[in-house]
Hints:
Rossmann fold, six-stranded parallel beta sheet, four-stranded parallel beta sheet, 17 helices
Amino acid sequence: MTDASTPQGGGCRNAPVLKERGQREVFCGLTGIIWLHRKMQDAFFLVVGSRTCAHLLQSAAGVMIFAEPRFGTAILEETDLAGMADAHQELDREVDRLLSRRPDIRQLFLVGSCPSEVIKLDLARAAERLTQKYAPAVRVLNYSGSGIETTFTEGEDACLASMVPVLPETQERELLVVGALPDVVEDQMLGLLDKLGIGPVRLLPSRSLDTETAVGPNTVFALTQPFLGETHAALERRHARHIPAPFPFGEEGTTAWLAAVAQEFGVSRERFEEATAAPRARARKAIAAAAETLAGKSLFFFPDSQLEIPLARFLARECGMQAVEVGSPYIHHAIHGPDLDLLPAGPQISEGQDVDKQLDRARAARPDLTVCGLGLANPLEAEGLSTKWAIELVFTPVHFYEQAGDLAGLFARPLRRKGLLKMEAAE
């Protein structure tokens, strides 16, 4: 149903992968709370950690002191660290205070961080204990957002994976769409699936516990985010079946994603074309405006979010860019394989990171645009390299047809800005 085809040269699925295991430059998985707490409107994320964890979340979220977000930090005090207080008793006390003050909480996530005293705590046991106390009004789960165990986007993966074992069992044939999306993008996606006649559609995560998602042997699931390896494995353990597809970035990726789902549910070619023709045309037109700036420019991805491979596919095939290196923290072939099939052969594919070595390769390549984390962007800009913050690609709506032009624009803006600065300097 889709025009997507493997590019001449055979794509990159079987390309040699440079595997590096050295110093990394990434945010920790606690950062995922910033978008998850907005998505799950009856959930609360209680980080068990230090004041550093609290400062990170406050800074990343940009939350004013007067706001009451759906996350917080149970800070370990000196008495806890010295072993003078029972940390489990202190945690229970904090949870009691929280739930008495916030009766709207239906799901409570205990989120581990990386201080050594937190690692020693058995938060899984604490979650079981608190579930027994507060069920069925509140469901208590736990996962780790520690920077030792998780990179930037793996916090969402760990969160969703923790939910899968407690989802109810169903024998119904249903589509489960997995991955947190902004509400406006999610609504657009559901509208497209409805036009295709596909349903019932369940979501993980759902916006509230009342719209409970179930899973079983007749469930098929499609991922909207390429960093959900643990969730993918957890769903397969519940006997759900994955629909492999390129990720819905750009017109081509969105069409291929929808086509894979449509084929699974027996949607006719005529109905598919009727439902997608208009948004496909809008997406192509929007991308073309940014592609005028991007075409022929070179591109270098530092590993950060695991979005790198599908984004490289989008930028190469739809915007005419030439990827020099595409680095990803992890490469999961069951998840990234369809995008690797479409990514034109040529770039170095790298997994993991040794940041000094990768910086040397980027400096030698002198790409027109470098996609990297915040910690590397300013130093590279000072060396004359144009950069795009990888974190912006997670916090900005970029999925599906209506966001395709915005996605291309995110990459075009740094190059346009550099061009304007050169013009001003010349004057």
